[in-house]
Every structure is written in C-alpha cells, then in structure tokens.
C-alpha cells in the first residue's frame, strides 16, 4: 500500500482519509486507540531538554570550568521557562558527585561555574544537568558530557600514562529481534575503552565454524550486514582488530516466531518500510499497526495486513518531521513488536556569521568580532548565545558536539555519540550510511509503551520549580518512626535578610518549602512550634538525583608526550591564581528583592537611637509602644498591638491588643519560647521591626510580628532548641565574574603583571538584537598561539546553531 500522495495533509486528515479503507473493521479502531493513547500521554507529560555549553572540555585543577545551560521543550526545541532551577553535577566513574551546583534559570537559560579544587584526582568526569521535573523520567534524558581533568599537584597513575586498550563489540538486529527464517539487517559497533570506534573486519560463523557472512566497519567502528538465522543454529562473530586483537561475541538469540522490520531509504524521496512475520500465534491475526512519531507527536498511524508473511508500506519523507522519527510496529493485540529510528535532516537551524576585525593579533591587543544571526533563508533571527575563546594545543581541541547536533540528534539516542557534528557537515551517501548505522546501533531504546497504552493519569513525585528552588524535608514521629501529617513546620535562613517559609506536612510527612531568590552558602533551620519537639524527627533531603544512566566514562589516558603542554598549563594556572586571585573570585552583584516576607513593617526601631538598656524587658517596656511584655510566674508573654483595631478607637473597636504571642523572629529564625528572647542581650540587637496586625504567610498565621535583627545577622550567641534541625545548605549558585583585563590605556598595556589566561573570553550572555546584529570584544594576553573562537546559541522559536573559527596571537 502506497500512501505518499497524502504527505501534504495534516496527520489528523491523513488518518481520516485512510480510515475509509478500514473504518468498518476493528483495525481502524485499534490504531485509533494507540494514537489516542499517545495524544493523551503527551497532554500529561511535558518533557524538558537541557544542553550545556562549557568553555572547554579539558582542565587542570585550579582552573574554572564555565558553563551555560539552555533549557528547551523537548517536543519542539523552543526555550522553555517552566523550571527556574537547573542542577549541575560533576560525577566520577563511580557516579559519586565531586562538585554540585544549583543554577538559576530565566527564560530558558542560566549560567554558572565550578572552581576545580586540588582535591580532585586526575581522570574523566561526567558533567550532567537536569531539572527537578526531569527527575520524574529516566536519567538517560539528563544532559551528559565527558570532562577531562588533570591534577598537576599529584603524580599520574602509571595506568594513566601507559595506555591499556580494550575492545568491545555489540550487535543490534534491526527492529529489535532476530527471527528464524527471516532475513534481518544487523547493525554492529566496535569501540575501545575510550568510547572511540575502531576499524576492523570480521565474520559470522555458526556452531560448525562455517562462515556465514563477512563484514567490516565503516565510520566510527559501525557497520551492518544481513543474516537469515536458521532454527537450531547459534551464531558467533569473530572480529579481527588492526593491532592483532581478536574479539569473539555471540549474536543475540533468534526466536522461532515474531516480526522483523526493515526500513530502506530509496534514494529518491520515499521511505520503504517492510515487515515480515513467522510462526504467528493463534491469537495474532494478520493485522499490524505502524506508528511513526517524533517526540511523541504522531506523523503517521496506519493499519496494514500481512499477506503471505509480508507487508510493505511506502511513505513520502516529506510527511515526516525533522529529526529522529520513531517507527513502531504493533501486533493485532496492540503489543509493540518492532521499533526502529530514522533520521531526517533538520532544516530549522540558526546561522551564526562571525566577522573578526583581524585574523592575527599581537599581545594585549583588542579583538572585535561582529556577529549576525539568521535562519536558513537568511531571514533575521535574534539569538541568545554563549561564546568561548581558548588556546588550542594537543590537549585542547574544538568540541565535537554543539547545541544543534545535541538537540536534534544526541539527546534522542542512548550512549556516547562520537563526533555528532560529522553527520551534519555534509549530506552525501557516505554520511547517510553512517547516520543509518548510528540509528541501528544506538536507536533501539524499547520505549515505555506499556505506560503510554495504559492511559493512566500520572502521579508525579517531583514538581517543576517554576518560581525558585524547593527544599524538601520530612517529619516523622520519634516514637513510632512513622510520618506525621498536618504538622506546621518552619524553615528559615539565619541572616539579616529575613527568609522564612512554612508548610504543613502531607500524609507522607513530607514538607516542601519554596525558596525564592535563595542564593549562596547558608545555614538553614527547620523547626516546629510544639512544647515537646522531641516527639518529632526532622530531616532535609538532597535535591540532587540519586538515579544514574548506564553510560560509562571512557578510560582516561594521557600520553607522556603531553608533559610539556601540561607543565605550561600548570604554570599559567599558578601565575593567574597568584597575581589575579581577587579578580578571579569576584561575584556578580545580586539583584533581588531584600525586603522581608512581611514587606514594610508597621514600625522600625533602631536601638542605637534610644537609651541602651541592659535587658530586653526594659527595651520593650520603655519605648516599644506596640509590644507589652507580661509575666505569669516564670513565663513571659508578649502582647502586641492590633493597629487596625486601635486606629478605629472612636468607633469602639474590640481586640486592640492580641491575646496570643506574636511571631517572634531573631535574624529571621522563629523563637517560640518567649523566655529566651526576653533573656537575650539587647546590646547585640541592631533593630526591631514590628508588624502590628494579623498577618498570613502561607500556612502561617501570625498575630503580629516582632522581628529582631542582630548586628552580624548570625544569631550572635543565641542557642536554638536542640531538637531544631540545623544544617549547612547551598542555595542557588552566585555568578562568578569572568576576569577579562582591559588594555586600552597605556598604563594597563605597560603593566608588568603577567597575563597567562588560557581562556581569553567567556560570556554566557551574548545576544543579537531585533536586526540579528551583535558583537563581542576582548583583549589578548601574553601567551602566543592559535585560539579557537566558539559561539553557540538558540533563538526564541527553537532554531539552534553554532560556529567556530581560529585566531592567531603572536608577540
């Protein structure tokens, strides 16, 4: 059945037209049910995608790793502003984090940095990034990139210097399985322990050592061959590597019944999908259903009848959307039997044109690069970009992945993709074959079709952080160890800026605190207002994911020939840290609202403006007219003015004074024991803010607020309750200022301070205006050599792009 003449019709119309051929049969109902399940799943599952641009991929300890995160909607690659926090981690080969950060996001982008400490050992590390919302899905969807780090203060392990090479081979039947009696295309990949494909050749033998087929690799250690397995036979691959190594690997087991799928690009504008079957069970009719989709958006949904064990469908490639198309074959029971990926080259790309004022520069001279951004039709396209300029040598090379290749290709496949940009540089028969081999060997993902077809309303464990970082904790009973529900729990950040949140625990004892504009390293205090706090156990959870993909880091190896380059980079790092330490540690100023949650208080008392009494009770009685301390026995109460009622005294108001204690804060931390605040030394308090009215803050109801602030903002000797949970906690990362000296003045140009920057320029905030025009400028340093200029970015409508070129610096 040929359906290519429908390709210009929308999918819904296509299904409707096709429906006339089988609307009266159950087949159309079945394929419609699958289609409706996919649509329903999409409506309930918004998928995010992250790309991280780093200034380089190789570092020595003591240097700064700079990065920018781009957050997009996975269905269309458009920047997505849903999540306001991205989590960045640097993991070792045991999936243990060595560095972690929380990055503030705005309009789908954010940036940060890691100063690489000397506690890190030399090796390859995984830089990964994700949002809280993405933790609801597989960690295979997180962004992942390999980063190499050398600690020049420690001797390298001998295994690092003297390379040990191991080889691995894997075989992937097209569609998923081998079936006896059916011819299958089998993709294969042979790579070393550095995840690099190798050139080799080999053959397939049966148990009698008869050679059935021979094969050899093409690009990146990949290739394919055809095999028709026979019942009762086992097949083994014998692979000969160029260094004399031999790999033996058993092929996947063949089944006696099932389906085999083959997708062939005809070379014209058609795609031919063939499905063969053998040994069908009695409960399986000859009907199959073929679904083609991109990011869960259906391109085609159609029923086919298998005639004499075969079915063929030819479609026009124009009916497919750009990028990775997932082709799935279902049997008559709506069970997925075969799956295959096909890649259609995208036409939606942002073209970045860069025009440097020169190609060759002397030391400490100014570089000006004019930029323009357009789409592929040369239409103006404003872009959000990031830029890096770094020195090249055998250790530092231009990256093989960029935002365009990642969003369209790498992010949709499992495992490491070697040089993904290769597939986009040229479109010819060679790259098309390599691309198809890539789809065969890294495209079989076994998507979660059962979850899709069950049509269940999802229950998500993690919520999107759409207004700021969320701190999650739990409260349990000390006696029973069971969760406590309905308990009001407070979380505060000691400091001069009042940051307080409250939450009532749910049925699982969980509490969630939305921490807007929460930056930097802090202490946090979690507590309850209960006369017997020892009844409860409080805990705070890490927001970082504890799930990991199955990807393995490549083996780390540094040639002895690199010793000179490492010595140079180590010298440059030490000089920069010695002479420019203060410049390297500068942070961007925080532009956040510093008002407390209660905004403007009714009245503020700066205690130095009054007589300084030695007891808090005297302070409150003598000049804080809104608060009246009362004592009954050994216990104090604070009676606070109800200002709205007081101001209506001529109308005979009631309750001019609240009869219950107000919310008392010391440096933002609630103090529930009034005796402790009365006993606190007032000479340590700089100011007192009074809210003389009833105030609601989330689940917190305050009958007035008395907020004391110390001079240092650190509670200054005040002892919190031993049952309060007090921990160190890092908020959102403060942004480091990239050190970029200005040599425009003669004095700076003649400065004797050395400039040994390996990275001449980094900016995560390069943009082109509404006319698609922009520029960057910086100064060269004192190190001669060839430098690589790299620009990457995305437009508001999801057009991604990158470019790069060389600059020369000489004395």
Describe this structure in words.
By secondary structure, the protein is mainly β. Among the domains are: about 55-155 and about 550-585, Macroglobulin (MG2) domain (Immunoglobulin-like); about 470-540; about 630-730, no CATH class. It is about 15% helix and about 40% strand. The protein contains 13 helices and 46 strands. Strands 2-8-7-4-5 form a 5-stranded mixed beta sheet. A hairpin with a 5-residue loop joins β12 and β13 (about 210-215).
Strand content: 35-45%
CATH architecture descriptor text of one domain: Sandwich
| CATH homologous superfamily designation of one domain | Macroglobulin (MG2) domain
Q: Measured on Cα atoms, how large is the radius of gyration?
A: 33 Å
- Please name the CATH topology of one domain: Immunoglobulin-like
Count of DSSP helices?
Answer: 13
CATH class of one domain: Mainly Beta
Q: Indicate the low-confidence ranges by residue numbers.
A: 1-24
- Mean pLDDT across every amino acid position: 90
Coarse shape: globular
What's the arrangement of strands in the largest beta sheet?
2-8-7-4-5
Ends: how far apart?
A: 70 Å
**How many strands appear in the DSSP assignment?**
46
Q: For the report, how would you describe the main beta sheet?
A: 5 strands, mixed
Q: How helix-rich are the residues, as a percent range?
A: 10-25%
């Amino acid at each position: 059945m040929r359906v290519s003449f429908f390709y210009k019709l929308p999918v819904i119309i296509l299904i409707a037209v096709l429906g006339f051929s089988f609307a009266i049969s159950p087949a159309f109902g079945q394929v419609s049910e699958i289609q409706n399940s996919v649509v329903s799943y999409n409506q309930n599952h918004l998928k995010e995608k992250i790309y991280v641009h780093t200034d380089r991929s190789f570092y020595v300890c003591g240097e700064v790793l700079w990065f920018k995160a781009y957050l997009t909607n996975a269905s269309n690659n458009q920047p997505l502003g849903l999540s306001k926090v991205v989590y960045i981690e640097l993991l070792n080969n045991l999936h243990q984090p060595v560095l972690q950060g929380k990055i503030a996001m705005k309009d789908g982008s954010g940036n940060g940095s890691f100063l690489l400490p000397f506690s890190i050992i030399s090796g390859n590390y995984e830089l990964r990034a994700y949002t809280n919302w993405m933790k609801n899905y597989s960690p295979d969807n997180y962004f992942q990139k390999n980063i190499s780090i050398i600690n020049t203060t420690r001797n390298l392990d001998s295994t690092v210097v003297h390379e040990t090479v191991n080889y691995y081979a894997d075989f992937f039947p097209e569609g998923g399985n081998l079936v006896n009696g059916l011819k299958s295309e089998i993709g294969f990949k042979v790579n070393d322990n550095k995840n690099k494909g190798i050139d080799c050749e080999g053959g397939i033998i049966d148990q009698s050592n008869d050679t059935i087929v021979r094969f050899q690799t093409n690009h990146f250690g990949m290739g394919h061959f055809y095999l028709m397995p026979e019942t009762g036979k086992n097949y083994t691959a014998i692979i000969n590597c160029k260094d004399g190594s031999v790999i033996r690997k058993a092929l996947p087991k063949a089944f006696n019944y099932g389906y085999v799928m083959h997708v062939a690009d005809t070379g014209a504008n058609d795609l031919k999908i063939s499905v063969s079957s053998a040994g069908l069970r009695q409960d399986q009719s000859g009907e199959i259903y073929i679904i083609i989709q991109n990011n869960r958006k259906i391109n085609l949904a159609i029923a086919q009848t298998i005639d004499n064990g075969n079915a063929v469908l030819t479609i026009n490639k124009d009916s497919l959307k750009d990028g990775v198309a997932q082709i799935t074959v279902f049997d008559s029971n709506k069970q997925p039997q075969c799956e295959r990926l096909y890649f259609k080259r995208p036409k939606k790309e942002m073209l970045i044109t860069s025009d440097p004022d020169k190609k060759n520069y002397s030391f400490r001279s100014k570089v000006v690069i004019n930029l323009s951004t357009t789409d592929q039709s040369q239409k103006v396209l404003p872009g959000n970009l990031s830029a890096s300029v770094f020195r090249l040598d055998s250790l530092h090379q231009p990256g093989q992945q960029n935002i365009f290749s990642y969003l369209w290709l790498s992010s949709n496949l499992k495992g490491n993709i070697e040089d993904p940009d290769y597939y986009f540089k040229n479109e010819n028969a060679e790259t098309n074959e390599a691309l198809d081999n890539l789809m065969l060997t890294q495209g079989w993902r076994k998507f979660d079709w059962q979850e899709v077809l069950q049509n269940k309303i999802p229950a998500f464990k993690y919520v999107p952080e759409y207004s700021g970082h969320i701190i999650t904790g739990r409260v349990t009973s000390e006696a029973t160890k069971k969760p406590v529900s309905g308990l009001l729990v407070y979380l505060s950040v000691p400091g001069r800026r009042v940051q307080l949140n409250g939450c009532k625990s749910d049925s699982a004892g969980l509490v969630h605190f939305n921490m807007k504009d929460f930056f930097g390293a802090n202490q946090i205090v979690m507590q309850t207002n209960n006369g017997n706090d020892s009844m409860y156990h409080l805990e705070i959870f890490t927001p970082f994911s504890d799930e990991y993909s199955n990807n393995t880091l490549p083996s780390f190896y540094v040639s002895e020939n690199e010793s000179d380059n490492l010595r140079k980079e180590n010298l440059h790092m030490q000089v920069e840290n010695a002479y420019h330490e203060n410049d390297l540690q500068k942070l961007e100023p925080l532009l956040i609202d510093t008002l407390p949650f209660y905004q403007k208080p009714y009245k503020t008392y700066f205690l130095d403006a009054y007589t300084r009494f030695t007891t808090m009770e005297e302070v409150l009685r003598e000049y804080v007219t809104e608060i009246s301390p009362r004592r009954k026995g050994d216990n104090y109460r604070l009676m606070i003015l109800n200002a709205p009622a007081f101001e209506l005294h001529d109308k005979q108001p009631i309750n001019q004074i609240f009869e219950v204690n107000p919310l008392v804060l010391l440096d933002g931390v609630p103090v529930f024991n009034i005796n402790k605040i009365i006993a606190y030394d007032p000479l340590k308090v700089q100011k007192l803010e009074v809210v003389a009215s009833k105030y609601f803050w989330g689940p917190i109801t305050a009958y007035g607020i008395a907020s004391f602030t110390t001079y240092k903002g650190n509670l200054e000797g005040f002892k919190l309750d031993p049952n309060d949970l007090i921990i160190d906690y890092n908020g959102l990362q403060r942004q480091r200022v990239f050190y970029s000296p200005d040599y425009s003045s003669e004095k700076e140009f003649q400065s004797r301070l050395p400039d040994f920057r390996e990275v001449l320029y980094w900016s995560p905030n390069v943009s082109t205006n509404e006319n698609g025009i922009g520029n960057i400028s910086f100064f060269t340093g004192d190190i001669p050599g060839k430098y690589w200029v790299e620009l990457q970015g995305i437009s508001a409508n999801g057009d991604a792009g990158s470019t790069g070129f060389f600059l020369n610096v000489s004395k």
